[in-house]
């Protein structure tokens, strides 16, 4: 094996070039010198810890000098010489040792002061586990003056608000608005209360309609109470008034079929003979967002008022027919009484001049018998007035009746009772209708509404209720403004 100083072996300087800091570390203090400094620091720390708390600073200094002995200055001098020989790292190391000594001395002072407190715990015993599991109640709450330490609810300004216990928080609540002349109030209230309790809801609210309040005012009261659903039981007028108050509220409306017409319930294909099914649907059913129509009428004296409708409204003969219907006969035989009203109105029916315009279309002028604006298309008796009408298409269907003479009315009847209600159901029938020559006895249109004016006041009706006479009518649609309840799994795509 060749000697380490052989020329064949590369020198260390070639493999590992010297670093500029090597000169500093090469002249640093020796291990013995560092041990001497550490011993001095420990002795000073012990002297501080043994000094009584009432001794002065001079007494502590004398004690440290006495314990250090005559060799301490020499050791300090040697440490200073060693430090002076290393201007870089040695000075930094001495500084770190000095900082550590001050921290240790401070800890000793703190421990000494803690030991002399009468109530100071023994550090060793405090560090030992006692086998006790602490509970939240064992710790005193950190609260401000006047506070109890309980969680609290605050408002936007920081004011305290009541926060009831979970068991006391209110359950969902429903309201029933009903016409006492159309339904058995006692039976219906008991049924709604029982099904609400079974579903875990609170005791329902009950409101009866009157002649002066068709249901809109009490419905607004129910909404102010924060109910989660409203049930309505009554005639078409009651349903219309309640729907008007609930339009845009976002609260579901359940229609319990009752009364004579049930026009909206029929168009939604709701169960007409099972009120309990609609009451139960409030708690476990589905909802459908349907459109709501609005009509502003201008009276002959210039005053205006606006009302909602959910089925259809009109001006002219249809309103006159409703106005001529015998109320007592209507209570007895239901919607068939409208036939009597039509028989009374037709003999004196005369066409009238109307100027109308649909949004986005030009102005028209024509002599008509009646103008209908509809959200639904089905009438009682299976008559399909507007086969393609939808309650959720965001539009109103407009029907203009302008028959000329007796034959003109025959065309109207054929269109409504035969073509729309029968032939259109079959493929062959629809083929026949496509080949037939169109007549102008009935005109159909669709849009966001209609605005019309007459030369003379004409009767107006909304959902089968007469609303006096008007010289101008403006209608509009509010899409998806009303949430209606339907039974679970009810087919709604073709409504």
Briefly say what this structure is.
This protein is α+β, with helices and mostly antiparallel strands and 495 residues long.
Distance between the termini: 104 Å
Estimate what percentage of residues fall within beta strands.
Answer: 15-25%
Largest sheet: 10 strands, antiparallel
Structural class determined from secondary elements: alpha+beta
Helix content: 25-40%
Question: What Rg do the Cα atoms give?
Answer: 48 Å
- How many β-strand stretches? 18
Count of individual helical segments? 17
Describe the fold and architecture.
The chain is α+β, with helices and mostly antiparallel strands and 495 residues long. The chain has 17 helices and 18 strands. It has helices at residues 12-15, 22-26, 31-50, 57-68, 71-85, 89-115, 123-127, 185-198, 216-224, 236-246, 263-267, 275-284, 317-323, 327-333, 337-345, 405-420, 427-435, and strands at residues 153-154, 160-161, 174-178, 205-208, 229-233, 253-256, 286-298, 304-309, 312-316, 352-357, 364-368, 370-374, 378-379, 383-384, 396-401, 442-447, 451-462, 465-486. The strands form four sheets. Strands 7, 8, 9, 10, 11, 12, 15, 16, 17 and 18 form a ten-stranded antiparallel beta sheet that branches. Strands 4-3-5-6 form a four-stranded parallel beta sheet, with helices on both faces. Strands 1-2 form a two-stranded antiparallel sheet. A hairpin with a 5-residue loop joins β7 and β8 (304-309). The chain starts with 11 loop residues before the first helix and ends in a 9-residue tail after the last strand. Residues 1-6, 72-92, 149-154 and 161-169 have low confidence and may be disordered.
């Amino acid at each position: 094996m060749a000697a380490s100083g052989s020329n064949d072996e590369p020198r260390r300087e070639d493999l590992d070039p010297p670093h500029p800091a090597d000169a500093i570390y090469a002249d640093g203090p020796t291990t013995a010198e560092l041990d001497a400094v550490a011993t001095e620091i420990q002795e000073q720390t012990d002297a501080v810890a043994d000094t009584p708390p009432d001794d002065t600073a001079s007494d502590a200094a004398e004690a440290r000098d006495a314990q250090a002995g005559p060799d301490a200055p020499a050791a300090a001098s040697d440490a200073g010489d060693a430090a002076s020989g290393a201007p870089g790292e040695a000075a930094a190391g001495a500084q770190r040792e000095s900082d550590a000594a001050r921290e240790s001395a401070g800890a000793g002072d703190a421990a000494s002061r803690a030991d002399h407190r009468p109530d100071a715990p023994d550090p060793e015993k405090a560090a030992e586990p006692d086998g006790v599991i602490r509970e939240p109640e064992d710790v005193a709450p950190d609260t401000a003056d006047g506070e109890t330490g309980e969680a609290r609810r605050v408002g936007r300004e920081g004011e305290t608000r009541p926060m009831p216990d979970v068991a006391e928080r209110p359950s969902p609540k429903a309201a029933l608005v009903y016409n006492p002349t159309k339904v058995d109030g006692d039976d219906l209230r008991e049924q709604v209360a029982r099904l609400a309790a079974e579903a875990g809801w609170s005791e329902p609210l009950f409101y009866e309609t009157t002649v002066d309040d068709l249901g809109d005012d009490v419905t607004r009261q129910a909404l102010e109470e924060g109910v989660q659903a409203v049930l309505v039981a009554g005639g078409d007028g009651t349903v219309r008034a309640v729907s008007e108050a609930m339009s845009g509220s976002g609260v579901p409306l359940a229609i319990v079929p009752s009364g004579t017409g049930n026009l909206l319930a029929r168009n939604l294909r709701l169960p007409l003979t099972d009120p309990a099914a609609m009451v139960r649907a409030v708690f476990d059913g589905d909802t459908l967002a349907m459109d709501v129509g609005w009509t502003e009428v201008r009276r002959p004296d210039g005053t205006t008022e606006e009302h909602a409708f959910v089925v259809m409204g009109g001006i002219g003969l249809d309103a006159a027919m409703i106005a001529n219907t015998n109320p007592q006969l209507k209570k007895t035989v239901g919607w068939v009484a409208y036939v009597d009203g039509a028989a009374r109105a037709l003999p004196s029916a005369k066409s009238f001049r109307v100027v109308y315009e649909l949004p986005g279309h030009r102005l028209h002028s024509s002599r008509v018998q009646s103008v209908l604006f509809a959200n639904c298309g089905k009438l009682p008796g299976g008559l399909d007035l507007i086969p393609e009408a939808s309650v959720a298409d965001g539009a109103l269907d407009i029907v203009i009746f302008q028959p000329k003479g007796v034959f003109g009315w025959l065309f109207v009847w054929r269109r409504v009772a035969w073509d729309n209600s029968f032939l259109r159901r079959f493929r062959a029938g629809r083929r026949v209708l496509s080949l037939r020559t169109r007549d102008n006895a009935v005109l159909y249109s669709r849009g966001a509404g209609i605005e019309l004016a007459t030369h003379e006041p004409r009767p107006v009706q909304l959902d089968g209720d007469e609303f006096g006479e008007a010289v101008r009518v403006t209608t509009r649609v509010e899409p998806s403004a009303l949430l209606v309840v339907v039974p679970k799994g009810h087919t709604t795509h073709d409504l």
